[in-house]
Specification:
With 437 residues, this protein is of the alpha/beta class. It has three domains: 81 residues, Orthogonal Bundle (Arc Repressor Mutant, subunit A), CATH 1.10.10; 226 residues, Rossmann fold (3-Layer(aba) Sandwich); 76 residues, no CATH class. The protein has 18 helices and 17 strands. The strands form five sheets. A five-stranded mixed β-sheet has the order 4-7-8-12-11. The longest helix is centred in the C-terminal third of the chain and has 16 residues. The chain is elongated. The termini are far apart.
């Protein structure tokens, strides 16, 4: 088994590190892969059975394992057992030999397929995955005041809010964003995600007790492709990716927080929080999920405190995996209506996103007008403040300027008139946008 000391220790506070240097070195023996000869042999025979004839080099590309001292050992074993045979050659050297399964090999491949249909990059042991995730902990993220200001520059938020968000982000702990709808909680969470600019490594798959868990997900992992010469000396079972950003809204259910076993393929899909390891997990519209907030509390009460999670294999066995991501709960509901004191105590940072001041409202409207190529007017804003908002007994929301300007543009286009911040157009926009509740 590859010694865990060979897995690099990563200082994620330094974003200038070359991505290739994050990857473990290429295994020099079967022992260093952390896998057994029998397991690798099963992957080889199944690959030949499913794909058909393959060269040694093609097997290398399929399994992401080196030929020397790994694939060649499996091929030698399969040939001795008369499960594969050479059908020809596609070039010079042993890597170019073309192999095909024999009748005996076909029977073995079918037996392997009954246990698991997985075929792809060879997995890494769970212990190696755990060590790498601990080295890449979100607690090592250190965002400077300058970088935080830059990440939030496109938003209009107060100094007080910035000074609350900075320490919360650097803590690597969970954050609870709450406040009225339309004040930018989701936009703030997305800005936090942009701060996670450095790279991490994850394996394609993880193995524990012979069970495969697929961890790489192109939906959530933005892979960084490396030049062939940089990738060659590394363990290709691992890939470099930007820190993941996983967003779950009302569709989040209890089943998506545990291993998903595919009955046909006979391997597992990692749950969302495992895919978010090393990055950010945004639970948007918290309180509107398909499960009660207290159910999520009961599920995560230990992970939030101990930073480890326990997942269940279909055999009933519990396995321990890292639970290391910056979790942001975003909600429009009152915290006291959602969770109890015990839950809030485990979410270290609680940040209320307030309504904008009228000065902040003005700055937002000026930016929206500029982006929409409309001339800003203080007279238009004064009309809203003095007439429309008092008449409707409304409080300002950060989203109002954008939505009202877009309504105004639509109305002006229909009326074939210039889009300007006139009382008439603003009044029409308010009538079609606001509704009494």
């Amino acid at each position: 088994m590859q010694p865990l000391s060979a897995i690099p220790s990563i200082d994620t506070r330094t974003s200038t590190v070359a991505p290739a240097s994050l990857l473990p070195p290429r295994p020099r023996s079967i022992e260093e892969t952390g896998l057994s000869l029998g397991y690798i042999t099963d992957l080889v025979i199944r690959g030949l059975y499913i794909v058909g004839e393959m060269t040694g080099q093609e097997i290398v590309e399929l399994l992401h394992l080196p030929y020397e001292q790994v694939i060649d050992q499996s091929i030698a074993y399969l040939r001795r057992e008369q499960m594969i045979e050479i059908k020809g050659t596609g070039g010079l050297g042993e890597k170019a030999y073309r192999y095909q399964t024999t009748a005996k090999g076909v029977n073995r491949a079918r037996e392997v397929g009954e246990r698991s249909q997985y075929l792809g990059p060879a997995p890494v042991p769970l212990a190696a995955y755990t060590k790498v995730m601990l080295n890449q902990t979100t607690r090592n993220i250190l965002a400077s005041e300058e970088s935080i200001r830059e990440a939030f520059a496109h938003l209009v938020i107060s100094e007080q809010l910035l000074t609350q968000l900075g320490p919360a982000i650097n803590s690597g702990r969970s954050i609870f964003l709450f406040g009225h709808a339309g004040n930018g909680k989701t936009s703030i969470a997305e800005a936090v995600a942009r701060l996670l600019s450095d790279a991490v490594i994850i394996p394609h798959t993880v193995i524990i007790d012979g069970q495969i868990i697929r961890t790489f997900d192109p939906i959530h992992h933005d892979r960084i492709m490396l030049p062939a010469d940089q990738e060659a000396p590394t363990d290709r079972r691992w890939i470099v990716t930007k820190r993941p950003v996983v967003v779950a809204g009302g569709e989040l259910s209890m089943s998506s927080l545990d291993l998903v076993y595919e009955e046909q393929s006979k391997y597992y899909e990692a749950p969302l929080q495992m895919k978010a390891n090393g990055g950010l997990f945004l639970i948007d519209d918290f309180g509107r999920q398909q499960m009660e907030p207290h159910a999520l509390l009961n599920r995560w009460i230990v992970p939030l405190e101990k930073r480890v999670d326990f997942l269940t294999l279909h055999t009933g066995k519990k396995i321990e995996v890292p639970f290391d991501q910056l979790i942001i709960f975003s909600t429009n509901l009152e915290p006291k209506e959602l969770v109890d004191e015990a839950f809030l105590r485990r979410i270290r940072y609680k940040v209320q996103i307030p309504n904008p001041t009228w000065q902040e409202y003005r700055e937002i409207m000026k930016r929206i007008c500029k982006s929409k190529d409309i001339t800003y007017s203080d007279d238009g804003l004064r009309y809203l403040i003095e007439h429309e908002y008092p008449k409707r007994k409304l409080e300002p929301r950060s989203v109002h300027p954008r939505d009202l300007i877009e309504q105004l543009i639509d109305i002006a286009r229909f009326m074939n008139t210039p889009a300007v911040l006139s009382p008439e157009l603003l009044a029409a926009a308010c009538r079609s946008y606001f509704v009494e509740l």
